[in-house]
Every structure is written in C-alpha cells, then in structure tokens.
Specification:
Length: about 260
Amino acid sequence: MSLTSLNDWIKDKQFVRLQSSVKDEDIAVIRGKHGATQSINIYELVAGDVVLLETGSRIPADCLLVEGTDITVDEKIYSSGAESPIVRKNVATPENVDSLPDPFLLSETLIASGSGKAVVCCVGAKSRRGVKQPKLDTTTKTPLQRKLENLGSVFTKWGLYGSLAILLANVVNFTIKFTAIDDYKAKPASEIIDEIVEMLTLSITVIIVAVPEGLPLAITLSLAYSVMRMKDDGVLVRNLESPEVMGRVDEIVTGKTATLTSN
C-alpha cells in the first residue's frame, strides 16, 4: 500500500468515526405497552417507535405524523431552489383525506414550528437519510490544507534544487580529487564505489527529508480531533473546515433553540 493510499484510508476511517460521533445523540420516544416516555440513543431507534417532536428538533428517521397541529418542517436539504423548503404537515384522518394531507416526515429535516408525535417507519440505509446522504467527502480540501499543500510544494521544489546542488558539488569535488591527486587514484575500486554511493545516498536523503509526505495527514487528523473536541464542548459541527472558521469567530448569535441556521 502506497503512502497516498494509506493517507486516504486513514482519512476515511477518521471521517466515518467523526461522522458517527457527530450524529450520536439521545432522543425521546414512547415504547412499551404502558406508553412510558424514555430516552434512547438514535442508533437504537427501530421501526414502530413513537418519537416526540418539538420546535427546533431534527427528525431522526422517516416517520408518519400521528398527532400534532400547525406543524411545519424545513425540508431545505431535500428541496430544489424553485420550491419553498418550509412544508406544512397534517395528520391523515378519514375526514381530511380528500384534501391530500402530507403526514410524512423525512429524516434529517427540521421542525420549524409546532409539536407532536410520529411513528418511525424506516431507519438506517433504507431511510431518506441513508439514500440521499452524500458520501463522506475525503477529497475536498480546507483552506488550511490547501495552504499547507502549497507550502509543501515549495519545500519539495527547493529540496530538489538543494539535492541537485549537493550532488553537483560532490561530483565536481570527486572529479577534481580523482584527476589531480595521485594517491586518490591509487585507492581500491571498492572505496571509490562506496564514495560514489554515499554521494547518491546523500542527495536522495535530502529529497526524502524535504518532501513533507506526512504533513497533509497530520493536518487532517488534527482537524478531525478538533471537531471532536468541539463536540465535547457542546459545539456541534459537521465538517473539518469548522475549526478554522470557529477560530475567527468573536460572537455567536443564535435563536431561542440555540440552533444555527442560514440567515
């Protein structure tokens, strides 16, 4: 396995682990024949659970609304630019079936207003989140990574120049000694070959040291751990660029639900 492949493999593992920890949360559900409310991990959610919904909460799975009024949902992540992302949801009953109510709640959408209850219909990879969620992006670079890659290119270029200069200087020195010094000519061929090998080894070593192969990997891991530390501090973020952005933030203004949204 090449160093680049190893780098991508470790990045994939870190992103998967990070993405799983970011979405790791507890939600309130109604389970059991007694209808008791309990808090469970989102990964323990199964079809048939009744989840409690309120303004500002994110729908954890594909659900069917069974109770609630004046509920609107922000479906911006699934809507195109031509249609409004705010959709009103109504419980389907025999009385309003002719008006074509929309009781379906899609996972990852946000309750914009209202509260109610919904039955979980689909979870995991078969849900809308599993089908529509994009693959983890391990190729897009953050601004810091792009700057460091440019810096690494500069180091590589000057390292190559330095290696060529050292090799040229050693070759000139070897040529002068071999042609001008008689005692040097009398050396055994094995010693002369060893000296030539040392010159080549020195030049190759300079190139290897100058190329910062581990720098992009180190920065990627540092950003991943920064995102996880931010999560521990109660700052929920979903991409590696967030630590760089948060480092330039002086004040954060949120709504009453402490949710950060566009505009």
